[in-house]
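Slide 14.
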Amino acid sequence: MNASILTEVILPLALALIMFGMGLGLTTNDFTRLFKSPLAIVMGLIGQLVAMPLLALGLCYLLNLPTPIAIGLMILAACPGGTMSNVVSQLAKANLALSVSLTAASTAISIITTPFIIGFAMSQFAPADDATFSILITSLGLFFITLVPVAIGIWLRHFKSDFAIKAEPFFRRFSLFFMLMMIAALVIKERDLLVSSFNDVFWACIALNIGSMVVGWLIAKCSKLNLTDSLTLTLTLTLSIEVGIQNASLAILIAISFLNKPEYAVTGGVYGLAMFIGPLLLIGGLKLKNKRTARAVN
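Slide 15: predicted structure.
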């Protein structure tokens, strides 16, 4: 298959379908909630759009990452949360409604923020390639690949709710399948870089995942919302997951289709698997704490 057809047509179309599926799961309540819980939404967006890229930048310098891994990490940190964050929030019994609202909001805003963060990363770590990067073209590409399909999905959810509710689980499964297929393809294509830089990329992804979840946890704790203990815990758990889990599929697509740099996609591929480690540790720790509390009460 022609590489240009794969990178310029098939990959963007597949991601557009994933974003369409995300739109099928959104309702008008997910957007009105942005105004009903503004502080929680703002704190989550600060963690997602500001703290996450700053953490990634710090790790790039602290770990002295090779250029492809460093730029890949910054691309990943610049991306919004994806459908996987909503799935994990549901499994963790976090605030699913807040998670969905944050994903929708960060996806919309990332059309502006993501290209600027990537442009900054290119200028810092690959000045020679920076001249070929266009913030405007990237923004337009993200608009048509992410926001337009999401809007169509929301429209169908509103006017054809029965179809949307039945179809949404299929697109969620497709999202996971697509990400795993891209990771497998990257492992094959970029195996030399992956082998030579495995320690760098693996530990960078683990540090970013756990570090971002800690940042989300601290942001929630510092927000000082007037909530009950149970709601505070739920909010903290939700922000930790939402900040820590990124749209790895989008990061891979940006590297391959927008930048034509498959080596930049390696970090996104590794993170696509590593991003579940932090939530699993968090959920396991909370379950252990709940068991100990229950025993103490009994």
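Speaker note: Residues 226-231 have pLDDT under 50 and may be disordered.
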